[in-house]
Write a structure and sequence with these properties.
35% helix
Length: 153
């Protein structure tokens, strides 16, 4: 299964009558719209300039465990915070946790150079690229969004 991650401004939109989630009043859903910034403003990673990325569930969990940010996305039982679909509010503490994990990784590998391509099977490349992507979009969202969030679906 695929985990879709969008980082940005959390919006609410009405659902069509045929959608699964219904409330007693008007059915709604939470969304974070996909955006792309010009390459000059974003990291040059294989993830591209978008605030959206797709990952396998187990790949995402393993990444979070490897880099020390599991508590940002998972509860003590190992379930994703915010359910699916669901949203996590972005706070300065979330940003500090992700930035801190990136600093630790950079400290362990001070000569590592972020390239435009991930070497297939390289856990180190994946760790650097995903952490840089997360750090960029979380920081950007906290500075630029009225309701900064990570939307998971």
């Amino acid at each position: 299964m695929t985990l879709n991650i969008h980082i940005g401004n959390l919006d609410i939109e009405p659902l069509d009558e045929g959608d699964a989630l219904h409330l007693d009043s008007t059915p709604v859903r939470f969304i974070v719209l996909e955006i792309s910034l010009p390459k000059s403003e974003t990291l040059h990673t294989p993830l591209g300039p978008s605030n959206h990325a797709d990952f396998g569930y187990s790949r995402w969990r393993e990444f979070c465990e490897r880099v020390g940010i599991k508590e940002v996305f998972y509860d003590e039982e190992g379930s994703l915070h915010g359910n699916l679909p669901g949203a996590l509010w972005l706070t300065p503490l979330v940003a500090e946790t992700i930035s801190g994990a990136l600093e630790v990784l950079c400290g362990k590998y001070p000569d590592y150079k972020l390239m435009d391509v991930v070497t297939e099977g390289s856990v180190l490349d994946e760790n650097f690229h995903l952490l840089h992507w997360l750090d960029f979009w979380v920081t950007w969202s906290l500075k630029n969004c009225e309701r900064p969030a990570i939307y998971l679906s």
